[in-house]
Design goal:
261 residues; 2-enoyl-CoA Hydratase, Chain A, domain 1; Lyase 2-enoyl-coa Hydratase, Chain  A, domain 2; 2 domains; four-stranded mixed sheet; 48% helix; binds hexanoyl-coenzyme A
Length: 261
């Protein structure tokens, strides 16, 4: 049996998906993307999982991009349209996942690797990580949602520099750009990511879900509509058992236990 291209594991409330094609630096081909979608669906359906972590096998690469051999296979327009449809669908699923998503980045995160992390909520990089969008050097551009997400997440002139030149940047530079949340020592990457994931997992999964939906929906709305949407959503949140538990725990000077109701 060949090794699965996506490894799924759970530890308490944290589910982890590991891209596992180390021989190709975890590059994404169609089969790997479909496996990623399947395993993500499994973690979404598992009520005991409250937070999902994405990472890559080994410490040489998170993901070195789309699989260049596959991209160069000249299988015709139908193949490329299918590839674009699948990668967009999977990355959008990640972006709109109701559970908080974290990304643990070790080594190379290039092309589709940087594009995937742009679809996650919180990103932790090892100090040796290198990010970049080298698609332009291949005669492509970041088309797995990356051009649109990047320009909304960092300043337009920086986004364009990254996409027009294709240079790789260090984890420290990515931090300065606001592309990632933290840089940690390589040896501590998974530990620090898990610690952060566990802190998020202590919070109400229902409220986090409603917050994520409020943020995602609001991002596409003019401010007055976004505020009206938030106003309705906080009404829902205030009526949850978890909101009452959180407030009661404060008044009773104890830690809350959130059940997602
Ligand atoms: C397929 C890849 C690959 C990729 C590396 N490999 N990246 N295979 N697709 N994106 C393979 C190499 O061919 C090689 O296979 C093995 O992994 C090890 O890679 P090396 O190049 O020998 O390693 P190294 O010298 O350490 O260089 C690491 C690297 C380099 C700097 C990351 O591999 C590199 O530049 N890779 C391409 C990065 C890139 O351009 N990504 C954007 C892709 S386009 P063999 O068999 O020779 O050992 C893209 C479009 C988005 O992402 C599509 C949406 C998903």
């Amino acid at each position: 049996m060949p090794e699965p291209t996506i490894l799924r594991s759970t530890k308490g409330p944290v589910g982890t998906l590991t891209i596992n094609r180390p021989q190709a630096l975890n590059a994404l081909d169609i089969d790997t993307l479909l496996a990623l979608e399947r395993e993500l669906t499994a973690l979404e359906a598992d009520a005991s999982v409250r937070v999902i972590v994405f990472t890559g096998a080994g410490d040489k690469a998170f993901i070195a991009g789309g699989d260049i051999a596959d991209l160069n296979s000249r299988q015709g327009l139908a193949h490329y349209l299918e590839f674009a449809e699948i990668v967009h669908r999977v990355f959008r699923r990640i972006e709109l996942c109701d559970k908080p998503t974290l990304c643990a980045i070790s080594g190379w995160a290039l092309g589709g690797g940087t594009e995937l992390l742009l679809a996650t909520d919180i990103r932790i990089a090892a100090d040796h990580a290198r990010l970049g969008l080298p698609e332009i050097t291949l005669g492509l551009f970041p088309g797995a949602g990356g051009s649109q997400r990047l320009i909304r997440q960092v300043s337009p002139c920086k986004a364009k520099e990254l996409m027009f030149i294709g240079d790789r940047i260090t984890a420290a530079e990515a931090l300065q750009l606001g592309l990632i949340n933290r840089v940690v020592e390589k040896e501590r990457l998974l530990e620090e990511t898990m610690a952060l994931a566990e802190r998020i997992a202590e919070k109400s999964p229902l409220v986090l879900k409603l917050l994520k939906r409020t943020l995602a929906n609001g991002a596409d709305m003019p401010l007055p509509a976004a505020l009206a949407h938030e106003q309705a959503m906080i009404g829902l949140v205030l009526d949850t058992r978890d909101a009452h538990e959180g407030c009661a725990a404060f008044l009773e000077k104890r830690q809350p236990t959130f059940e997602g109701r």
